[in-house]
Amino acid sequence: MRVVGLVAKYEEPKAAEMASWLVPWLKERGKQVLVEPGVSRAGGRACSKREMARKADLIVVLGGDGTLLSIARLVERPRVPILGVNLGGLGFITEVGIDEFEAVLAQTLAGKYSVEKRMTLEIQVQGKRGGRKRFRVLNDAVITKGARARIIDLEAYVGKEYLCTYRADGLIISTPTGSTAYSLAAGGPILYPTLGAIVLSPICPHMLTNRPIVVSSRSTISVTLRSSGDTVILSPDGQQGVALNNGDVMTARDYGVPISLVKTPSRSYFEILRSKLKWGER
């Protein structure tokens, strides 16, 4: 690993402190360091996240899950590992702790590490009046109503088979990685992160029998907005908002290129669940 990319939640003092230590540490070991512009005062060569995703052999993320999501969707090479360091938040995908970070990083640079392959989704929006937008998500794609307190109608298909028309505040389409995020709060199940599946979780459905459903990752999911006059937003991985109009169609399918997340050697996935969700505590 010759080129290391560094992404940090630089407005957090702890992230800035760690970045200032990490850049010289990497340079002492003969590594070229690429940093996003906000971290450039720590040293290293400033570049965009997109360039970093193309050129880095390893990407280190200092922050929370949102910080990791901002770079993960740009990484098109499945062999490039992403090492996420949790700086104190909930952090399901930034699972390496501060206390073990230096040791895990040294082992990773030496090639002594293991990764977990996480599926991503390709999200496309086909406008009723033409135009197409395309996104990639690691966690989820969320369709939600705007500020007005009324439900929206979302006509959903799995493949060519009609599923139902959700009358709800919105709909979450989630990967196994995203099953511990917004989908979980909406009553969705927790999926093992390497499972080949997609979750559809309605948000506050009008019919209480509209429960979350899990389908194969080989499925293509189509959702058509059937509400007019309302502001409806699609949010891919919570990174941006895209307005949807009546008749617009959103499709979701396996992107085909997974993300490689460096695993912490000190805790299993179930240990992380117990710790984060306080399972078994009174």
Query: What is the CATH topology of the largest domain?
Result: Rossmann fold
For the sheet with most strands, the description reads: 7 strands, mixed
Task: Count the DSSP helices.
Answer: 6
Number of strands: 19
Radius of gyration, rounded?
20 Å
Order of helices and strands: EHEEHEHEHEEEEEEEHEEEEEEEH
Q: Which structural class do the helices and strands define?
A: alpha+beta
- CATH architecture field of the largest domain: 3-Layer(aba) Sandwich
N-to-C terminal Cα separation, in Å? 45 Å
Helix content: 10-25%
Provide the number of structural domains. Answer: 2
General form: globular
Structural account:
With 282 residues, the chain is an alpha+beta fold. It folds into 2 domains: 3-118 and 258-277, 3-Layer(aba) Sandwich (Rossmann fold); 121-254, Probable inorganic polyphosphate/atp-NAD kinase, domain 2 (Tumour Suppressor Smad4, Sandwich). Helix content is 19%, strand content 35%. The chain is built from 6 helices and 19 strands. It has helices at residues 13-28, 49-55, 65-72, 101-109, 182-185, 269-277; strands at 3-8, 32-35, 45-46, 58-63, 81-86, 115-118, 121-126, 132-137, 140-145, 152-158, 161-168, 170-174, 197-203, 213-216, 221-225, 232-236, 242-244, 249-254, 259-262. The radius of gyration is 20 Å and the shape is globular. The termini are far apart. The mean pLDDT is 93.
Describe the structure concisely for a colleague.
This protein has 282 residues and is of the alpha+beta class.
Write the layout of secondary structure elements.
Layout: E1 3-8, H1 13-28, E2 32-35, E3 45-46, H2 49-55, E4 58-63, H3 65-72, E5 81-86, H4 101-109, E6 115-118, E7 121-126, E8 132-137, E9 140-145, E10 152-158, E11 161-168, E12 170-174, H5 182-185, E13 197-203, E14 213-216, E15 221-225, E16 232-236, E17 242-244, E18 249-254, E19 259-262, H6 269-277
Parallel strand pairs: 1-2, 1-4, 2-3, 4-5, 5-19
Antiparallel strand pairs: 6-19, 7-8, 7-18, 9-12, 9-16, 10-11, 10-15, 12-13, 13-14, 15-18, 16-17
